[in-house]
Amino acid sequence: MADIRPFPGIRYAQSDNLAALVTPPYDVISPDAQQRYYERDPHNIIRLELGRETPSDDELDNRYTRAARDFAEWRLHGILAQDAPALYLYEQRFTVTGAQHRRLGLLARVRLEPWEAGVILPHEYTLSKPKDDRLKLFRACAANLSPLMTLYDDPTGELARDLETITQTAPLADFADETGEQHRLWSLTDPAATARVAAFFADRQLYIADGHHRYETSLTYRDEQATLRKEPLAPDDPANFVLMSLSAIEDPGLVVLPTHRVLRGLDLTRLADLDAALQPSFALEPLPTLDDATAVLARAQAAGDTAFVLVRPEGDPLLLRLTDAGRDAMAQLTGEQASASAAWRRLDLAVLHELVLNRALGITPDMVRAGEHVTYTRDADAAIRDVRDHRDGAALAVLVNPTPPAAIRDVARTGDRMPQKSTYFYPKLITGLVINPLW
């Protein structure tokens, strides 16, 4: 199935200053952070990944043409250097809520496949604006500046054991970024070893965890290249591949953070009748305090229960725990989700969107897609403050559990897509560690 290849990675020639040269991926960089990265070093990858716009930009001079110019000049002057073909092993060490974690990713070129081939599977829908931006950058630089994050199954730890031996050798790079997270990089060049890795993936599916927009953009870029050349691409043409960081679903360092919902501008009648509307599907339990809301949710998840914490402007927060009647309601959905798979119906966020947002509050899927009524935050305290302070019409907050990584695989295999903002893998993969040239 998955076709995994070594590639001639382009990296910063000097590895002793990488913390000043790398950034997070483009979609989590704020304008303030963008300015900070610009000021940090004249060769910071921000100039390629997310260049600044100026009032004088035109078709010949814009952030994409400037990225192409800088990319070429940095290679010409030795700021960036190209390796011989290799696979790379990428380790991240980080802390979440006081616990230390370690995550491994295998950086490789992976052959592009259409969704319908069933080799590489998505779990969410994409938007046109981010794809248009990334396509312009692809055209300008002809390179993958940052990897997609993709998951695979390794239930026996077969590949994990092989990769672990690599971490016992000296890394190519070893540094801490601005948040204190540690990054280490190794290369794997031995032909026999890379062949074993390729063989491991030959009968496996891959599940995109983060990077759906860039994957679909890569498909478009590949097709454009064939059109421009007026002939099919050769099978091994680099435009047939995309840069991925591949992590095992079983990796204990695979951390997904929850994305909580803040509900705004709600119908007052619906709000007044909310408890009654919820009771057919949920057991409602008042919580004396929000201090242990996260722990309460974690215990419910560990017990196999679907549960949420509902926060209102006044009064005790409520623990909503799905009942058997609620599970029956999910099994008997009509309308848009009538044909949804059992894996999709088991998702906490599917239950939330169907039984709480749609059925109890009248917030339809079309409203959610249009950005009406529902906003998102990973900061539970901020969600609570918004509701308690009635900020910007905030009427309710719903605190949720993170989506387990295995659920991404299970839903992707069925062809379903998860509700919006179902996953947030932490930390993000760094940009600027290894670049994949598409030539």
Supply the helix-strand structural class.
alpha+beta
- Spatial gap, N to C terminus: 24 Å
**How many individual domains?**
2
- Which regions have little confidence, pLDDT < 50, spanning 5+ residues? none
Q: Would you mind describing this structure in some detail?
A:
The chain has 439 residues and is α+β, with helices and mostly antiparallel strands. The chain folds into two domains: 4-255 and 426-437, no CATH class; 258-401, no CATH class. It has 16 helices and 21 strands. It has helices at residues 31-40, 46-49, 63-76, 128-141, 158-166, 191-201, 212-229, 268-272, 274-278, 293-302, 324-331, 342-345, 348-360, 365-369, 380-388, 405-414; strands at residues 4-5, 10-12, 80-82, 87-96, 99-111, 120-121, 143-144, 148-152, 173-176, 182-188, 206-210, 241-248, 255-256, 260-264, 282-286, 307-311, 318-322, 374-377, 394-399, 425-426, 436-437. The strands form five sheets. Strands 1, 4, 5, 6, 8, 9, 10, 11 and 12 form a nine-stranded mixed β-sheet that branches. A six-stranded antiparallel β-sheet has the order 15-17-16-19-14-18, sandwiched between helices. The protein is globular, with a radius of gyration of 23 Å. It starts with a strand and ends with a strand. The mean pLDDT is 95.
